[in-house]
Amino acid sequence: MLNTLENKWALVLGASSGFGKACSLTLAKNGMNIIGVHLDRKSTMPQVNDIIEQIKSYGREALFFNINVSDEEKRAEAIESVRQRTGADNSVKVLIHSVAFGTLKPYIADEAGKTLNRKNIDMTLDVMANSLVYWSQDIIASKLMGEGGRIFALTSAGSHRVWPTYGAVSAAKAALESHIRQLAVELAPHKITANSVMAGVTDTPALRKIPGNEQLVENAISNNPGGRLTTTQDVADAIVLLSQDSAQWITGNVIKVDGGEDLI
User: Fold this and answer.
1) C-alpha span between 40 and 214 (Å, rounded)
2) Which regions of the chain are under pLDDT 50?
3) Does the structural domain 9-258 have CATH classification 1.10.10.10?
4) H/E element, 180
């Protein structure tokens, strides 16, 4: 298959770990320069620097921003920096939303203060879902993405299944899928596609923060027809395929990358 990613840019929201990290490195291996947006403290910055060095070792450029993905002012500054660095219209071919930062609490609890409040829910929806819309609007308005562009949002089976404490995140994942459908229709005349990628249960830092994650892993291994967990590399490889020019007619979908896990 002809590689149509060479020397294009990918903008990865949540680039420093999990799916975002795997996508950044795999797209770089396949010829893309990487713009990474992440939020890390000083203690985890060495890991971010390692990712940047790996990208550069593939002969690719890396432009990383340590900012809150939902900060409107910082987003505008980052977009302008990307514009100056890439120096051309339609230079960003791929936008990946892989942001995992939400509140894990139940809706209902016996003990006061242990339940989700408005601030928790609003923050989770804004960061994990609505930010996709704002970044998409800005990169298109700035002419950084045009014909042939690809937008991906990482979702999960939690968008339609229930797990204790996952309510706000589940709502965000469902909203994320809805945002993708709307973007797919509105961007179709621009020949830009938008798809949700639903990974199976994957051992990531985000998964380990979910109370009871050990049971999620056990259930996935026992139920998955492939007999193993999904990996971040599985997802990154799928996104490489879907980013090629030959995938232009695939849009508005929830594409499962889970070895058939969600069927059982």
Assistant:
1) 25
2) none
3) no
4) helix 167-187
